[in-house]
Amino acid sequence: MKAIHLVLPALFFAVTSCTLDKTDFEEEIAVEIPENYSFEEVFSSQKETYKISVEALNGTFYKGYNEVRVKLTNVQTEEFLANSTITFFPVLTVADKQESCPHASILEYNSDEQYFEGYVVFTKDSNVGDWNIQLNFTIESGDFQVDKIVSVVQQPNKNLNMTSFTGNDEQYYIIALIAPQKPKVAENNLVAGIYKYVGDESAIINNEPNALASSFAVVNKYTLLLDPRMPEPSMGNHSSPNNRDLIQGEDGLYHGVVNYTMTGNWTLNFIMQNQNGKIVKGTEVSTDFTPGVEGEKSELYIDILF
Fold this sequence. Notes:
Number of strands: 24
Helix content: under 10%
Distance between the termini: 45 Å
Shape: elongated
Number of domains: 2
Number of helices: 1
Order of helices and strands: HEEEEEEEEEEEEEEEEEEEEEEEE
Strand content: over 45%
């Protein structure tokens, strides 16, 4: 297999926010929230008598978290193949540099549905550079490789936003919202993925990563303290009761509860603690009633809209 040498440009690690400096709340509220529940083919390729098909919600890769399903079939017998190992590797090329993103390297087989499954968290859309998906699969007749340039578009659903940041521990993190796609005025199960950059050289020079290889690991045993607020000046720093902080589940994702008491713009303010209870990123938000003033935000937050 061809070795790929990866470096990460400084742009990737700039502390990002999902909110414009000046927000037009009324215009945002008027936007209809899209929902995608159907998996469709993004691309397929045939190697000898084997077809490999990659599926995602709406047949589209979005910036942020994407569930991935891969079907491997024998085109002669039309049988799904389960006895295989499939690896998945996304690479973004920007100018003469390459980087990757959080993803499941080895896809797991779902015997009930007869497909391999994993995920990828695209950190940029295709306006920045070219994303290439490299799939390798092994079956009895040998090893096969598929390389495909794919399109990654902006996520139109703000409930599936993501953010990246540098923690107080000088590590680089990504938080990607996964659910709910379309919240209700009620208590909603909130799901997010948390990932940390790891590399051959993780020292920081001038607040930039000095890394020769790009990879990410799932963050384990952290806690995301949650404080949701409505940032519009007319809402006076409105919050809600019965929210639950996000903790890691058996699936490796982080689960909590957010109680939306009305529709509109909400800010999910976070404080991220490591396994020892030490704050990695985030600040407390004032509970003061502030009519006519745009809501204060934690230094770690994600804006959503429904």
